[in-house]
Amino acid sequence: MNKFSLLLAATFISAPLALSHQSYAAENQSVDHPAATSEKPSGSVYMTFHSADVGVGYTWGSGVLKYHGKSYKFKIKGGDIVALGFSKSQAKGHVYNLKHIYDFAGNYASAGGEATAGVGVGAANMKNTKNVVIAFDTNTMGGRVAGAPGGFTISFVDSKLQKSAKASKKAAKAETTTEDLNQQQLNKASK
């Protein structure tokens, strides 16, 4: 048996053992969050991730952002550089530095590391190019080994809101005011 086959077998054989301790760990352990900010959160997030990995990994999922009393649904796509296995993760956390709703969408990368406190329980910080930080705790089920947290892209389910997010990105590149471009996109979408 080669090393890859042994690693694959070990991952899937250990999954039931990890799952049996999963609920106990989630209910009885807390994670010290690696968030490096004492700032008040801008909002909160609830996410579900699915990851399927054989070498290069792929992650997909969905979530809800609670911001200024409203709920915004979003989609997640991304990957890991080195990972093996399959998992499903539930995550909840807070969003920091979010000044405009459309700044939430975009590409996120690991910011500030990752912490784990037992089987299936962890925490991470992800940051996008607009300096928006998502600090979240995870509860993971499945058999999966990953080298480091990868990045992901968030896009809004609401097409008008997603167009505003894209307009915001274009404005930053063109040095046009974000508010002007955003208003133009919303006007076009409402026609």
Short synopsis of the structure:
The protein is of the alpha+beta class and about 190 residues long.
Structure notes:
Keywords: Signal. Residues 167-191 are annotated as: Disordered. Residues 1-25 form the signal peptide. Residues 179-191 have a biased composition (Polar residues). The chain folds into 2 domains: 3-157, no CATH class; 159-191, no CATH class. The protein contains 3 helices and 6 strands. A hairpin with a 4-residue loop joins β3 (106-116) and β4. It is of the alpha+beta class and 191 residues long. The chain has helices spanning 3-28, 159-174, 178-190; strands spanning 43-67, 70-96, 106-116, 121-128, 133-146, 151-156. Strands 2-5-4-3-6 form a 5-stranded antiparallel beta barrel. It is 29% helix and 48% strand.
Strand-helix topology:
Layout: H1 3-28, E1 43-67, E2 70-96, E3 106-116, E4 121-128, E5 133-146, E6 151-156, H2 159-174, H3 178-190
Helix pairs in contact: 2-3
